[in-house]
Amino acid sequence: MSVIAHYRNKQPAYSQAYWSDDVADLSKIYEPDINVCIVNRQVDATLDNFVGHLLRQASPISFVESIAFGSFDFYSLLPDKGHLPGYRAFCQDVARLTGLYCDLFDLTHVGLRLRSLDHAMCPKFHVDSITCRLICTYGGTATE
After folding, report:
1. What are the two backbone dihedrals, phi and then psi, of residue 54, each rounded to the nearest 5 degrees?
2. Which of 9, 69, 93, 96 lies deepest, with the highest CB count within 10 Å?
3. pLDDT by residue (tens digit) across 48-73?
4. What are the CA-CA distances from residue 110 to residues 71, 84, 101, 107 (Å)?
5. DSSP conformation class of 14
């Protein structure tokens, strides 16, 4: 599993990626010459099995919402999957990563998107107004 934080500096002299095995190193995104932090992390088998089950299902996963982190019920993410083993671990992991992102940027509200993809979500390079994204790939071929 990898977590990627991408930060767009206004005019970097050059940029580089920072690789780590510790999510605390996502704070390196504030360093002026770093514009991508990549964290490789291990997850337990329960969470991995749950994600595998989701990826084998025919119906795609889609959750897109702006949330207030302090009051959002993360166990409501995929209510039709709540009976599956590993669902609580998955929701807790999403909550932990969302909290980490909110702490990193001092946010109380954040956009949260969960999607299963079978093609590139953004097939072309583009510029938008998002200063930083945290992207977590739970299974499959990962994120580029």
Report:
1. -60, -40
2. 93
3. 999 999 888 878 888 999 999 999 99
4. 12, 27, 9, 7
5. S
